[in-house]
Amino acid sequence: MVCRGARAHWLTWLLASALLAMGAPNASAQEAPDLGRVLEGGAVRPEDLAERPDEDTDQAATPEEAAVVGPVFFEYRLNQQVTNGVGAYDGWSDRTTATGHYELEDGAIWARYRWSYHSPDDDRSGDEDRHVPFSSETRRYTSAVVDLDDYDQRSPAADGRGIWWFLPPDSAAGSTARILDDDFVVVGHVPPSVTTHRRESILVERVNGTGTRDDAYGRYVTHITDRYWFDAETGYFLREVYEEHDVGALEGARAEFDVLETTEVTAASYLPGTTATWSVAAPAWRSGDTGNSAYYNSTEYLEERARDSALRRKWVQFAIAVFLLVVLGYAFYRWRKASRKHDFDGKISRIHRVEDLSAEVGASELLAPLVPHLVRQTLRASLPVYVASTSTPGMGGVALGAPSGEAATIFARDTAACEALRQAIGCAYFFSEVRHEHSFATRAAAGKHGIILEGNHAYNVLETHEVLVLRPVPSDTSYDRQLVRRAKPADLPAVIAMMDAVYGSPCKVWIESAHATGDVILVATEGEAIVGCAAVSVVGNAARFHSLSVAKSHRGKGVGKELNRARVRIASDLGAEQVVVEVAAWNVASLEIARALGFTKAGAMYVETNAQTKSDRQFRRP
Q1: 236-260, pLDDT tens digit by residue?
Q2: Of 263, 297, 331, at which residue does a domain stop?
Q3: Which of 35, 55, 424, 606 is the most buried (most CB within 10 A)?
Q4: Which of 20-24, 102-106, 360-364, 501-505 has the lowest mean pLDDT?
Q5: Are residues 352 and 256 in the same domain?
Q6: Distance between CA atoms of 465 and 473, rounded to whole angstroms?
Q7: Which residues lie below 8 Å from residue 444, measured CB to CB, with a gap of 6+?
Q8: Res 140 pLDDT > 50
Q9: How far apart are CA 440 and CA 1, in angstroms?
Q10: pTM for the whole thing?
Q11: Same domain, yes or no, for 47 and 103?
């Protein structure tokens, strides 16, 4: 569960919320807290806000020793957003909001808050009601359980966990203070502002803002900025701004995300003119029958907590068991899917780095120099890549995943390797450079069951693309520079929108992957509008054209021709000695443009499938 002080990314939250929302671990027995000079009773009277002489003027208290004095309630609101996802978290955003009411009494704090979480695929909410003891002298919690539920499963430091809602008003600039589990440095006094209710405040900032994260969700370097503002007169909490930027990788693909969290006091007894909005009924510990904080340190209370915690732990264990069963069941399903019976006697494995390709690059006859780049783009798009490895030269292969419903790409001359890769990647349609024929083993197995296989081909073909090559690449090709230019980062949304309209399916993942891996993207413009685009990949002395698109309103006006001429010139300028492009056989206009520029047919790409029914859809190569 995410509430005030939450630091977990949404993926961690999805698991943690199922387990932690059921309760906190049992609190161990503690000594009776030092009441210090904490005010007693309920609401604050106006005279309570007046300045009071120090009870002991002979010895000034240090920030860590100053007693917590002053108001007895405050309310806050929290807003947290996880956004700016890149790679594995591309397009993801979620938001958590919370409101809370805190009251101080007799060396303990009563915390009540409500929270809600919203994301594209989940909505949750909950509330907490906690009574937690603390020492007003040391500014430390005296219980393993604190007022923030997201710290229930974290072990505090040896010298304790610091309270977050109070800082001694006489804290000097440069001194340090413990807030929860982190050390903060006092920056100094800040003039009144709207965000601090026009009160002079004391600003503190987290000392160590860099860390690492390495878990099931990836490896990250975290950069954190955490700042608190405390009321300069009373020392009580006014505002916090927490910013986190994580950079790392998930399954070999780059991943980034930002977390921004703002917590602000909305009403408090130390803020004149503000009124509590929560309707707070008196808790049991304020009835007088329980002995107030003494009850919460009694054997009766601790035994009750132990019983409750034991029950909660059983529910947590049950939730963990269910979660593990789901995970293991899914893993078994994937294993069965990847290990279906086929003729291939080599090894099928998923890779997360281009360096793991080894000799399988040779599985492509037409695009061999470009296969590593295609693998890099696929991984950058957070899509799976599998390789088939065997001791027999030329019998391996590579499979590049595609978004759901689109055709994958399999480079494998051997039918058995191709089928093993198809099963591993889980695709119904795939691009291939060869028409795969039934292997001898497949025919023999079918014959044993009285099945006669018609024809030689192992898959049906839904579509054929011609593979055209331009060699050498002319260096003097001209194009209309008033019409065509290189795309800027700000152009990408318009490019994606146009391509989505042209193809009738999302193109964002491929365009952003191409841009991120160094492909040159060109756009044709009319005024401020983008009416066409095209991309070119250059690897060494080899280049590949892809993603040529022209808005329907501008077809037949020479836009595609100028984009192709511009790509030829760019490829030449970048040192390419040959260019390859795949064009669907039905796309006569694009074939004529390519041939006019000197491209000649070198082979074909087939959209093969194991489906038995014909599809009328058109397939595109990314």
Answers
A1: 999 999 999 999 887 777 888 899 9
A2: 297
A3: 424
A4: 20-24
A5: no
A6: 22
A7: none
A8: yes
A9: 58
A10: 0.46
A11: yes
